[in-house]
Amino acid sequence: MFFIEYDKLIKYLKEFLGDDKKMICRFCKKEIDKSIAYKHNNTDRAYYCNYEHWKMQKEKSKYKPKKIKKNGEPNERRELTDLIMSYYIEQGIEKHTINWSIETARIKNILDEHKDWLITGLTYTLKYMHDIEEVNLFSEQTNCIMALVPFYYVKAMEYYNETTEIEDAINNFNFSEKVIKIKKGKHKHNRFKEINIDNL
Asked: Is the pLDDT of residue 52 over 70?
């Protein structure tokens, strides 16, 4: 009886002191033993399954813009990155494996090359390419989704302007509620004379 309680005490001490303690990987949220978990340095309190998970977590947390600006308006950059992430997920690619450094660098390069373009225009162009033109955003020639956006930007903006003009015309159309009566004639009038085939 004494030995059973002693075993329980040892097991409890090991769990408490960390020999058999289970940790949760910050990246994939899987439970791992503390003894085999990867910890990047002594100041980092997080544990990971391996070095790759640590690196992917670092990339993931590197770029995370806020959804709403301080003035209460939605963040256009966040809308664009959320759209990019949704297209990756739609393709079956995990969101943690997205190379954000390439995507964000491409966005910056596009905006630097074309000073009059806006992030909202890039978002609309990406939607236009995906929904209207049905462009394959994951072709072998491109290394990121944003690579083809400059080729479709002008066409997408023309399409946007046309649709907003049509929408404005529909919204500004005045429907009159005037009742118009149409009189129906009482006479049945045959235009053609009946021909009897037997008399011919």
From this structure: yes
